[in-house]
Design goal:
This protein has helices at about 30-40, 55-65, 110-115, 115-120, 135-145, 175-180, 190-200, 240-250, 255-270, 285-290; strands at about 1-10, 25-30, 50, 75, 85-90, 95-100, 125-130, 150-155, 170, 205-210, 215, 220-225. With about 290 residues, it is α/β, with parallel strands linked by helices. The protein has a single domain (about 1-290), classed as 3-Layer(aba) Sandwich (UDP-N-acetylmuramoyl-L-alanine:D-glutamate ligase), CATH 3.40.1190.20. Strands 7-8-9-10-11-12 form a six-stranded mixed β-sheet, sandwiched between helices. Strands 2-1-5-6 form a four-stranded mixed β-sheet. A two-stranded parallel ribbon has the order 3-4. Strand 7 (about 125-130), helix 5 and strand 8 form a beta-alpha-beta unit. Helix 1 (about 30-40) packs across helix 8 and helix 8 (about 240-250) runs antiparallel to helix 9. It is globular, with a radius of gyration of 18 Å.
Length: about 290
Amino acid sequence: MNMDLIVEVEKHPSKGETITGKAFSQLPGGKGANQACTIGKLQGNVALIGACGKDEYANIVLNSLRTCGVDVNYIERVEDTTGVAFITVEKSGENRIIVIPGANERVSKTLIARNEKLIKEANIVLLQMEIPIETVIYSIEMASRYDKTIILDPAPARKLPDEIYKMIDFILPNEIEIEGLITEESFRSTEEKVMRLLELGVENVILTKGAEGASLYNNRIKMDFPAEKVEVLDTTAAGDAFAGGFVYSLNSNRSIEEAISYANVVAGLAVTRLGVQSLLPDRQEVERFISSK
């Protein structure tokens, strides 16, 4: 859960360069919050476990989650600053991001344990890695004990214990993040790294590739899913919108292939506007886009 401080620029500054930005905005963000808001705006039943501070940024982030239809009763307010992300967005829509975790570092194993009942009652547990890695591992282990569908968006990518992968039903890295997951020099190409994840026990790898769409890999098939052709304004929340759209669609009893295609539409609509949570597409927008194709 972050407050995004966004600067629009013609191009990113080079080392030692000072440039003049075009516009500045403050908008609620954070990977977990963005994903939850995506599901909420699609009218899914979603709750977020997390932490924020007791500052004004926290009030804004919490209000945004509520507005998007997210259950915020499992979010704790702690004695720390709410997370902040500094984002520059180029005219092309490409972005660079620096995150100050703040209260996100307080999402502890103890906090997860206090909310075990919520995980026990869930259909799907979606995780990302802007919280402590030990909390991610603990949450995966807990969800696995209850035989939940476990989906990991491994961003920002960090090395995980090999044994944790066999508990993951879907992992959603992009082409950069997979480099941080599989660091052994013997696995050089992206394809080799995907195969390694499958060898370690992940049931499905969904490689997200920006404007090129996504590819599904498992022990039966490899299938490509083209991205939607849209006018890109801001790619900041594309991966989060994809993850949220995929989870919502999968929980609606669609096949994996149908859920990926649906997620591509959600992500495609998300990149056509600047900002994240308030402008994420709702279910009616997605359905109109699909029916117009």
